[in-house]
Amino acid sequence: MTPPPATREHLVCLGLNYRTTPVEVRERVAFPEAKVPDAVQEIRQLPGFEESVVLSTCNRVELYATHTLDDARVAHEALVDYLVRRFELPQEQAEALVTYRLRSDDAARHLFRVVSGLDSMVLGETEIFGQVKQAYKVALETGSTGRALNKLFQQAFTVGKKVRNDTTIQRGSTSVGSVAVDLAEKVHDLKQCRVMLVGAGEMSRTCAQSLLSRGARSIIVSNRSYDRAVELATEMKGTAMKFDEWEHALHEVDVIISSTSAPHFVIKPELIQQVMRKRRWDPLLIIDIAVPRDVDPAVNEIEGVYLYDIDALQAIADEGRRERERQLSACERIIEDSLEKYGFVSPPTLSPQKPVAT
C-alpha cells in the first residue's frame, strides 16, 4: 500500500455548487479565468497555508489547500473570509454563502468524485475532468502546489480515467452543453433550426459538436476574439460573426445559446424587445449556460421569449440520470478502493465471527 501523504490531515476543501448555492450567488464568487493565477497565490499566502488549487466552473467554486494550522475549522474560516473579501460581498450575500467544508480523506473523496463526474449536475459529466486538469495546471505553473496537492490531483486523474474506462456512467448526454442541445431539440426541429452560439469557449464547442451531430440546419458563432469564432465555426461547418455585429442577426435565429466569460449581462431586455418586434413575436429560445449569467433574467418576461439558465437545465439533466445511476455503486467502489490504495483511509478491520445461535 502507498504510504499516506505526510500532510493529509492538513488537506482542506471549501466549496459551493449548484446544490448549495443559487446561480445569483454563485456568479458573485466565480473566478474569471484570467484571475485564477492570482487567486491561487493569494490563498497560498494566507497565514498558515502552503499549497492551493482553485476550481471555478459554471456549477461550482472549490478551493483546495494544505495548511499547518492546528484546526481545520480555522483553515475553512480563513478561506470563507478570503472569498468575502476577494469579492467584496455585502453582509446579506456573505450570510447566504452556504459552503461545504471538507478535510483529509473527505476532501480527497470529494475530489475523486468531482473528477469522475459523480458530483456534477449532469451525472457522469465529461467536461469536468478537463476543467479540473486546467485548474491544476494553472496552480502548478504558478508554483502554488507542492508534494501533497501534486500527488492528490495526479491520483484523482487516475481515478477519473478508471471510472470512465471501467463503467458506463459517462454514456449519453453527459455535459451541460449537450443537455442544452437536448432542450433545444425538445422545442425545435434542429434540422430546420438556426442556432447562434455567443462565445467560443469549451462549453460552446460542446454545444456545437452536439448540434452538428444532430443535424442542426445552421450554426452561427460570435465571440469577442473573432479568430476563435472563425476557428470554431470552420470546425463545425458554421458561420463566424464579429462580436459587435451579432446583435443584427438575432432576429434570424431560432435558438441562442450563450456562454461567454463576460462579468456582466451581454443580452439585455431592450435588445431582445427590438429583436422580437422584427420577428413579429415568433418564439425565441435562449439558453444561458454562463456563470456569471450572460442574459438579464428580465428577458424572460418578454412575450414569446423562453429563457433557461444553468440552474433551469437541472430538471432536464435529471431525466437522463436514471440509467447512469445504476452505475453509481461501481463508480463509488472504484473511488473507495483508490482511497484505500493511496492511504487516505485504512482497510476495513475484520471482526472475529461470532457463532450463530441455533
From TrEMBL:
Domain named Quinate/shikimate 5-dehydrogenase/glutamyl-tRNA reductase: residues: 183-316
Binding residues for substrate: 57-60, 120, 125-127, 131
Pathway it works in: Porphyrin-containing compound metabolism; protoporphyrin-IX biosynthesis; 5-aminolevulinate from L-glutamyl-tRNA(Glu): step 1/2
Site label Important for activity, positions: 110
CDD domains membership: NAD_bind_Glutamyl_tRNA_reduct
InterPro entries reported for this sequence: 4pyrrol_synth_GluRdtase (IPR000343), 4pyrrol_synth_GluRdtase_N (IPR015895), GluRdtase_N_sf (IPR036343), NAD(P)-bd_dom_sf (IPR036291), Shikm_DH/Glu-tRNA_Rdtase (IPR006151)
GO molecular function, one term: NADP binding
All residue ranges annotated as the Glutamyl-tRNA reductase N-terminal domain in the record: 14-167
Function as written in the Swiss-Prot or TrEMBL entry: Catalyzes the NADPH-dependent reduction of glutamyl-tRNA(Glu) to glutamate 1-semialdehyde (GSA).
Subunit structure comment from the entry: Homodimer.
NCBIfam families the record matches: hemA
Family that this chain belongs to: Belongs to the glutamyl-tRNA reductase family.
Entry comment, domain topic: Possesses an unusual extended V-shaped dimeric structure with each monomer consisting of three distinct domains arranged along a curved 'spinal' alpha-helix. The N-terminal catalytic domain specifically recognizes the glutamate moiety of the substrate. The second domain is the NADPH-binding domain, and the third C-terminal domain is responsible for dimerization.
Protein name per the record: Glutamyl-tRNA reductase
